[in-house]
Target: AraC family transcriptional regulator
Amino acid sequence: MDPLSDIIALLRPHTALSKPIEGRGDWAVRYAAYGQPGFALVLDGSGWLTLEGCEPVRLDRGDFVLLPATPAFELASRTGIAAIPVEPTASAVRHGDADGPPDLRMLGGSFQIEPANAAMLATLLPALIHVRADRRDTDRLARIATLVIEECADDRPGGAMILARLIEVMLVEVLRHEAIGRESHQAGLLAALRDPAIARVMQAIHADVRGRWTVTGLAGIARMSRSAFAARFADTVGCGPIEYLLRWRMALAKEALSRGGTSLDRIAEEIGYESASAFSTAFRRRIGCAPGAFARGLAAGA
Model:
């Protein structure tokens, strides 16, 4: 598989919660940081989203927003309104005036991902991914959004399951969309996959995680000098190439430990370590505990 598919398969995202959100009149609410991936799809109307420390972003009908690690944020009918703190809820939400048809309708919620590698998503993606419905290059996303909107409008058997699957498909489509994050210039996975030279290196690493990779060897795949490649990889991905390789090996190790039933010798062999001892030493150095202790902590819900 390609690097993006590898990471999505490792994280196994699935819809944990989706609920309708409505607003009418003048209103503004503030939510505390959540930490897990959150999303919102504007079904009708418009509103404003403001992440903590950032400028307000206008959301219009058909827009999709993905927050890889949901920070504190405000949602409002317009800018300049003092926000009141509210607590998240699993049920439908109505902001502003209680009576009358809503000015804004959204579908909002969160994704659940595998806890062993939950932090990976936030480190590889921009803090805010905003797909605007008026972009000419979002036809596929627009079609999925239309299906979501239609499913929300109907009360048909199996609707909740279909809606959850559509949202998950939309998540993957958003992550692989070429335009996502281009304007932010933020280092990470999406930036790496847009750079042909770095993308070739990422594909090589993911295709053979056990390989005895060196910066010089990877620079050859990128068709660049060693120094130029090392600088470009760090600027694009956010870390050096060998550091990325080690992070990916540890991510695979944590996934194997979370599943259980695989010996340390087998894990070491699968991710490129000569022995269980060498793997355990590397794991303890990077993760802060022995592999067995990590697995027991996951089993205990720590």
Q: What stands out?
A: The radius of gyration is 21 Å. The domain at 3-176 is CATH 2.60.120.280 (Jelly Rolls). The chain has two domains: 3-176, 195-302. Residues 241-259 form the longest helix (19 residues).
